[in-house]
């Protein structure tokens, strides 16, 4: 059995040297315990904040301790009446091939009828609900609105755009490569997509949002947010979901043009999905049928090769490598 621990804290950009792989004993289970085989690790941008000293919105990882994230796993032994061998569950688990979960605490059963098991941590889980809360509950798009989504090919962005489109809005997305741009346009749900690395957001928004922006779903912050403020309409809504452009740097350089919040009566609403988890069952009931019927698409970027690939896969997430929701496959389903 192996696990991945935090070997040193990143300064600036996270690199593979921040992680170490350790051999550990095979876990043994006691009364009421559950033994799991990890199947998919969920790789998410917030993990960068947890590698820092001190708390972000989640407590930091201790040096030498395992990295923890949402993990989809299979029950391989159980002394707990609630969990049977062969069932799939997800929980906040160590990055290890096999883990013992005392009394099965914190595990959530995955309903295989809802979708693929990986969907429990992607489209039917945290990233999906995040897109819904931000794009629909906070964004409140109405037919005719222009909605702009940054990191539009990411786990959250691809859904935020499609949800806004279903609500009747005109949807514009930004991404960091031509491949992502072509892919999103081919997949559908976005009326226009631009590559922020080749066209500055200010210039792109001027041409793609001629009637201004009514909702900006912010995943990146920085100069992209500045450009969105400049092109916002009066009474625009800005669900502030993430600011990934600042996660590996010393923080953002300061947003210019914030006065637009006042002059245009913009509502900027930061939100953290932990406060909205009670909406998950209703969200799943609404969205799972759309997935099954093909009305909604969702891309996962599953990195093969086992647990050892996780550090490089997380480093690559911040470099824009992933096309869709990034997961690492630790073992076959
Ligand atoms: P993403 O898949 O969107 O994140 C990875 C992508 O971010 C990369 O592929 C890259 O895409 C883009 N990116 C990386 N660096 C930059 C940069 N400097 N400027 C612009 N884009 C960059 O992850 P998620 O969909 O999981 O998360 C999206 C955002 O939502 C993140 O900011 C995350 O922290 C936040 N979030 C917030 C939650 C909440 O509760 N508020 C919950 C879940 C996520 P590209 O190639 O297009 O540049």
Oligomeric state: single chain
Q: Can you summarize the main beta sheet?
A: 7 strands, mixed
What is the straight-line distance between the termini?
Answer: 18 Å
**What is the residue-averaged pLDDT?**
96
Strand runs, count: 15
Ions and ligands: NADPH dihydro-nicotinamide-adenine-dinucleotide phosphate
- Name the shape in a single word: globular
CATH architecture title of the largest domain: Alpha-Beta Complex
Catalogue the unreliable spans.
none
Domain Enoyl reductase (ER): 12-328
GO molecular function: oxidoreductase activity, acting on the CH-CH group of donors, NAD or NADP as acceptor
InterPro entries: ADH-like_C, ADH_N_2, ER, GroES-like_sf, MDR_fam, NAD(P)-bd_dom_sf
Keywords: Oxidoreductase
Task: Report what the structure shows.
There is one protein chain. 26% of the residues lie in helices and 25% in strands. With 333 residues, it is of the alpha/beta class. The chain has two domains: 2-122 and 300-329, Quinone Oxidoreductase, Chain A, domain 1 (Alpha-Beta Complex), CATH 3.90.180; 126-274, 3-Layer(aba) Sandwich (Rossmann fold). Strands 3, 4, 5, 6, 7, 14 and 15 form a seven-stranded mixed sheet that branches. A six-stranded parallel sheet has the order 10-9-8-11-12-13, with helices on both faces. Strands 1-2 form a two-stranded antiparallel sheet. Helix 5 (201-208) packs parallel to helix 6. The radius of gyration is 20 Å and the shape is globular. Bound molecules: NADPH dihydro-nicotinamide-adenine-dinucleotide phosphate. NADPH dihydro-nicotinamide-adenine-dinucleotide phosphate (NDP) binds next to helix 2 and helix 3.
């Amino acid at each position: 059995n192996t696990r991945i621990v935090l070997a040193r804290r990143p300064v600036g950009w996270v690199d593979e040297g921040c992680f170490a792989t350790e051999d550990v004993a095979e876990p043994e289970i006691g009364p009421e315990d559950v033994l799991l085989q990890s199947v998919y690790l969920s790789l998410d941008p917030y993990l960068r904040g947890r590698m820092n000293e001190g708390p972000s919105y989640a407590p930091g990882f201790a040096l030498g301790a395992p990295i923890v994230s949402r993990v989809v796993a299979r029950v391989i032994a159980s002394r707990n009446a609630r969990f049977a061998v062969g069932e799939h569950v997800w929980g906040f688990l160590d990055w290890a091939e096999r883990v013992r979960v005392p009394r099965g605490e914190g595990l959530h059963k995955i309903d295989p009828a809802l979708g693929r098991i990986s969907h429990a941590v992607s489209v039917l889980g945290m990233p999906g609900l995040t897109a819904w809360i931000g794009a629909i509950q906070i964004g409140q798009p109405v037919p005719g609105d222009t909605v702009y989504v940054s990191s539009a090919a990411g786990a959250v962005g691809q859904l935020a755009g499609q949800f806004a489109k279903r609500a009747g809005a005109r949807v514009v997305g930004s991404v960091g490569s031509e491949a992502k741009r072509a892919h999103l346009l081919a997949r559908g749900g976005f009326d226009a997509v631009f590559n922020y690395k080749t066209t500055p957001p200010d210039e792109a928004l001027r041409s793609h949002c001629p009637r201004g922006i009514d909702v900006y779903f912010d995943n990146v912050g920085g100069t992209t947010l500045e450009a969105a403020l400049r092109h916002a309409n009066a009474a625009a809504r800005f669900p502030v979901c993430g600011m990934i452009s600042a996660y590996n740097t010393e923080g953002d350089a300061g947003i210019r043009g914030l006065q637009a919040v006042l002059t245009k009566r913009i509502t900027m609403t930061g939100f953290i999905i932990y406060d909205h988890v009670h909406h998950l069952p209703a969200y799943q009931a609404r969205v799972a049928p759309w997935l099954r019927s093909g009305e909604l698409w969702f891309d996962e970027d599953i990195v093969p090769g086992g647990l050892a690939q996780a550090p490089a896969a997380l480093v690559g997430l911040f470099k824009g490598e992933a096309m869709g929701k990034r997961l690492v496959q630790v073992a076959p389903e």
